[in-house]
Amino acid sequence: MTGVFSYLVFFLVIALILGVAVLGLNLQWGFTGLFNAGVAGFMAVGGYAAAILIGPSRDAVAGGFELPFVVGLAGAMAAAGAAAAVVGVATLRLREEYLAVATFGIAISIQLVALNWEYLTGGTLGLIGIPNPAAQLADGPLARNVLYLGIVLAAAGLAYAGLGRIVQSPWGRTLKAIREDETAAASLGKNPVRLRLEAFVLGSAIMGLAGGLYVGFIGYVSPFDFQPILTFQIWTMLIVGGSANNRGALLGAVLVWAIWTTSGFIVSKVVPPDLQAQSGALQAVLIGLLLVAMLLFRPRGLIGEEEHVSRHVRP
Amino acid sequence: MSEPLLAVEGLTKRFGSFRAVDAAGFTVEAGALDALIGPNGAGKTTLFNTVSGLERPDEGHVRLAGRRIDGLPAHEVFAAGMARTFQIPRPFPEMTVLENVMLVPSGQSGERFWNNWLAPRTVRREEVRNRERAREIIAFCGLEAVMGDLARTLSGGQLKLLELARALIAEPRIILLDEPAAGVNPALMETLVEKIVALNVQGHAFLVIEHNMDLVMSLCRRIMVMAHGRLIYSGSAEGARRDPAVLDAYLGDVPE
Amino acid sequence: MSGALLRAEGVVAGYRPDSPILHGVSAEVGRGEVVTIIGPNGAGKSTLVKAIAGLVAVSDGSIRLAGNEIANTPAHRLPARGVAYVPQTDNVFGTLTVHENLRLGAAPLPRRAAARRFDAAYAAFPVLGERRDRKAHVLSGGQRQMLALARALVPEPELILLDEPTAGLAPRVAAEVLALVRGLAARGVAVLMVEQNARAALGVSDRGYVLVEGRNRLEGRAAEIAANADLGAVFLGRRPPVRRPAPRAGAG
Amino acid sequence: MFLQHVADGILSGAIISLGAIGLTLTMRILRFANFAHSELLTWGAYSALVFVGFFMAMDEALGGPIGPLSFGWALVAAAVLAGGLTAAVALLLDRVVFARLRGHAGHMTLVFASFGVALLVRNVILMGFGPDPFYYSNELQIAVRVGAVRVMPDQIFVLGLTAVLVVLLHLFMTRSRTGVHMRAVAENPSLARTSGVDVDAIVRWTWVIGATGAAVAGVLYGLTVQLRPELGFSLILPLFAAAILGGTGSLYGAVIGGLVVGLSENLSVMVIPSGYKPAVPFLLILAILYFRPQGLFGEPR
C-alpha cells in the first residue's frame, strides 16, 4: 500500500511540474496564439540556472553559489524569460511560422550549450548533487517526496491562481483581443508587439520555473533531461486538456503523464530490455497519434475555452 | 478655432506604381458630420487606412487638432484621438460584447502587466468605472440585450453597432466610419442613423464613407467626392448631384 | 434575345449564405453581343460576374450557358466549358513571363492544340509578341490588361466575363481596351462586362443593365441607358436632405 | 584546411538544397511551415535501404560497385523506388491529416499537426530499425585529390547528381505545363483556378516533387554520412534556414540558401568549437529575420 502511495506521490510531483510548464505554454498558445516549439529549451535554461544558483561549489565548474531554493527558482524564471526576450524581439513582428522555427532553433542551441559548455553546465555529465529543499526538513524518501509535492503544489497553485488572475485582467483581455484580430486591436489603440512579447517572456519564465522545480526534485541536471520529446509531451498535454483553459492545462498534464507512464510500464513488460530504444519510440508514436487525433477530431480539447469577462465584472 | 480638427494635406499612398491616394487634401471641422463618397476603387478606404495609421503614407501630412499623426502606428493614432470602424466589422469573436467595449479605453492601468500586482485597487476601481461606462454606451447603441453574448453570435447589423460602441467609449475627437450601413437591415439602419445624428448633435465629429447615397445625402452636411485617389468635390449634397465632374466620376467620361 | 448564350435568372448569391448580395438578379448575353452592367457601389456587379465565374456560391436561381446549368460549377472547370473570366485586379501572373501567362490560358486545352492559339494571340496583340519573354510585372497597365485578355482568349471562349477592364488605366488606354472588347464581339464572342466608367462602356455595348442594391433597376439598349435622365439619381441618390437640429459648436 | 571545409560545405550544402526545394515549395503553395518535411528524408533513406536489401537478395551482383563508387545499381534502382514510395507517403499524409485541416483550422494548426506527424514518422522508423546507424555499402573508398582537397568519388557523384536534378527541376518548372501551373498557383491561386488550373492536382504535384527531392536527399545523406533515425530531425534547422535565406517560395533561392548553410556550417568550425556547429543554421535564421526577413533574394513585402 505504501508502495502505491509513494509511487502516486512521485507521479504527481512530476505531473504537476509538467503541468506548470503547460500553464506557461497555455499563456503563449492558448491566450496569445504564439507558437513555441522550444518548450524543452526554456525548461532547460530554468533547470540549469537553478542548479547553478543553488548547487554546491565545485572545481572547474561555474556557479555553486549554494543560494536558497527560492532564489534558484527566481533565477530560473529570469533566465528563461531573458532567453525568450532574445528570440521574441527577432521574430514576433514577423510571420507566425518564423516564431515556430526560431523557438525550435533556440531549443536545439540550448541543448548544444548544455552539452558543450562544460564550465557552465558540466557537459554531458551535467551538474549533480543539487540539494533537495525538502530533504533538509524531512526524513526518508517518502516524507521528502510528500514535502516536495507540497512545494510543487504551492508553485502550481501560485502559477494557476496568478495566471487565472492575469488573463482576466485588462492585460489578459488585451492579449486575447490581439490573438483574435491584431489589426482591429491595433486600430483600437493596443500595441500588439509589446503585449505579445510580454506574454511570450512570461510564459517562458513559467517554463523556466518548471525546469527549476524539476532539477530541485531529481537532484541533478543533464542535457538528457530536456529532450525534444518533452516539448511534444507538453504540447499534447495542452491540446488534450484544451487550450485557453488553465484547468484544462493541468488536467491534460496529469492525464497525458498517466498515459505516458502507464504505456511505458506496459511496454517495458512486453518489449525485451535490449530493445529499449524501440519501446521509447512506441511511446512517442502513441503521443504523436494522440496529438494528431486531438487536432483532427477534438481541436478544442477535453475542456474548451471558457467565456470570461474581466474578473472585476463578473455578475 | 482657426485650427481644423482634422487636416489632411497632399496625402499620397502608392502601391507599386499605382497611386491609390493621390495628393488628397481636405479638412474636417470640429462637430462635423461629413461624408466621403466616390466610385469603387476611388481610394476611400485606402485614405482611411492611411489616415488611421494602418498604412504609411508615401507623402503628405495629417494633423489631428494641430498635432502631426502621419506615420504613427495605428495604436498611437488611436491614442491621439481618432477612432475608426471597418467596412467589414472586425469584432473579437470569442469575447463578449461587454469585453469588446471594455477593452478599448486607452491608458487603462490594468493593461500594464505589473499594475495588476502592484496596484490592484487602482485597477479594480478603474475596471468598475470602465464597466459602468461600457454599459451605458452599449445601452445607448441598443445592444443591452446581447451585452453578455460572444461577439461571434451577433448579426451583421449588431456588429456595426458594436463597432460604433467600441469607437465611442474611447471618446475620440473624430470617428471615421467605413460604410456603416453596408449589410445592415433597414430597421437597424434607422437605429444606426439615429445614433450617429444624436452623437453628432452632442458634438461628436464624424467622417463617413458610405455607398448608400440616399443615406449619405440625408445624413451628412458636407459631402466630399473622391475619384482616382483625388478629391474632386467638396460641398452640399445638392451641389454634388449637379456637379458635372462628380457625374463624370460616377458615369465615366464620354470617349472622344 | 431568345437565343441568348448566357441566361442568368433570379440569381441569389453572396459570400455568406445568411446575407446574400444579389437578391434575384437576371441578365442575358447573346453571341456577338457586348453587355455592360453598371450601378452604384455595392450594387453587386462584381458579385454577379463572380457568381457566373464560379467564385461566389449561388444559393438560388439559375445560370445557363447554351441551355446547360453552370451555377456552382467549380471555377477551374468553367474555362473548358467556354467561359473565361478576367478579374479586376491581379489579373496577370507577375512572376511569369508573357508567354507563360498565355500558357496558363491553355490550361483547359489538350496539349497539342495550344501552339497555334499562341500565334493567334501574338497576331492579335503584337505588343505582347515583342515582350514574349519578359516577366509580366514589368508591363504597363494597358499591356497587362491586354495580356489578361489575351490569356482569357487562348481557349477560344464563347463567353468572356470582364470585371472593370479599364480600372486604373489612362483614358486613352481605356478607350483602346474598350475597342478591343468591341472587336471580340465582332468575332462572335459574348461579352459580359462590369464597368465603373459607365458612359464609355455603354458606348461600345449593345445592351446594358443597371443594378442597385443587388436587384435589377434598369435594362435596355446601351444608348437608351446612357441617355436615361434618371441615371444620375441612381448613382447619387434622390432623397432630399433631412433637416436636423444644429450641433453644439466646439464640443467633442 | 580552408579549401577542405569549402569542399565539404558544398557537398552538405547540395544535400540541404535538394531537401529545401521541397520545403520551400510547400511553404509557398500549401502555405504552412511543414516540420515533417525533413522526416521524408529519413523515410526515403530507409526505404532505399530496404529496397537495396531486396535487390541484393535477388541478385548479389547488383550490389557490386559501379567504377570507383562505393555502391552498385541496386542503390540506384532503390533510390528511384524510394522516391516513389516517399511521394506516396506524402500524399497519404496530406489526405489523412493536412488536407482535413487545410481551410478549416487556423494555419498554425497545420504547423502543429506537422510536428505530430514528424514525431510519428521518426519513431516508426526508430521502431523498425533501431537506433544504430546503417550504411548502404561496406565498400571502402579511396579518396582522390583534387588540388589541395581530398574527396571521395561518392561525393563527386552526389554533387553531380544534385546539379543534374536542379537543372531537371528548372526545366520542369519552366518548360512543362505542370511546372508553369505550379508557379502560377504559387503566385496567385485564385487567378490560376479561374484560368482552368486544377489547384488540387497542383497541390498533389507539390507533395510529389517535394517528397521525391527529399527522398533523394535522404539517400545521398545516407550514402555520404550514415543512416540514423534522427537524420531528418538534425536537418530541420538547416532546411528551414536554406528556405528562409533563399526567400520562401524561391526554388533557386533554396538551392543557394542550401549552399550558404552548408558552407557556413563547415566553415564555422574554424572559429567556434565543432560541438556548436548544429546551431549555425539557427544563427543564420535569426540574422536573416533581423536584417532581411524577405530572404536574400525575395522582394520586400
Describe this entry's structure for a reader.
The complex is a heterotetramer of chains A (315), B (256), C (252) and D (301). Chain A is mostly helical and 315 residues long. Chain A has a domain of 217 residues. Helices cover 71% and strands 0% of the residues of chain A. Chain A is built from 12 helices and no strands. In chain A, helix 1 packs across helix 10 and helix 3 packs antiparallel against helix 9. Chain A is globular. By secondary structure, chain B is an alpha/beta fold. Chain B folds into 2 domains: 183 residues, P-loop containing nucleotide triphosphate hydrolases (Rossmann fold), CATH 3.40.50.300; 56 residues, no CATH class. Chain B is built from 10 helices and 10 strands. Chain B is globular and about 65 Å long. Chain B starts with 5 loop residues before the first strand and ends in a 5-residue tail after the last helix. Chain C is α/β, with parallel strands linked by helices and 252 residues long. Chain C has one domain: P-loop containing nucleotide triphosphate hydrolases (Rossmann fold). Chain C has a 6-stranded mixed sheet with strand order 6-7-8-3-9-10, with helices on both faces. In chain C, a hairpin with a 2-residue loop joins strand 9 and strand 10. In chain C, helix 2 runs parallel beside helix 5. The C terminus of chain C is likely disordered. Chain D has one domain: ABC transporter involved in vitamin B12 uptake, BtuC (Orthogonal Bundle). Chain D has 11 helices and 2 strands, in the order H-H-H-H-E-E-H-H-H-H-H-H-H. The mean pLDDT of chain D is 88. Chains A and B meet through helix 7, helix 8 and helix 9 of A and helix 2, helix 3 and helix 5 of B.
- Biggest pleated-sheet summary of chain B: 6 strands, mixed
Count of DSSP-assigned helices of chain A: 12
**Rg estimate of chain A, integer Å:** 19 Å
Distance between the terminal alpha carbons of chain B, to the nearest Å? 47 Å
Q: What class would the helix/strand composition of chain A place it in?
A: mainly alpha
Oligomer: heterotetramer
Report the helical percentage of chain A. Answer: over 70%
SS strand fraction of chain A: under 5%
State the total count of DSSP E strands of chain A.
0
* Unreliably modeled segments of chain A: none
Can you give the mean pLDDT of chain B? 86
Shape of chain A: globular
- Stretches of chain B where pLDDT is under 50 for at least 5 consecutive residues are none
Descriptive labels:
C: 252 residues, alpha/beta, Rossmann fold, 6-stranded mixed beta sheet, 31% helix, 23% strand, D: 301 residues, mainly alpha, ABC transporter involved in vitamin B12 uptake, BtuC, 11 helices
Briefly say what this structure is:
Chain C has 252 residues and is α/β, with parallel strands linked by helices.
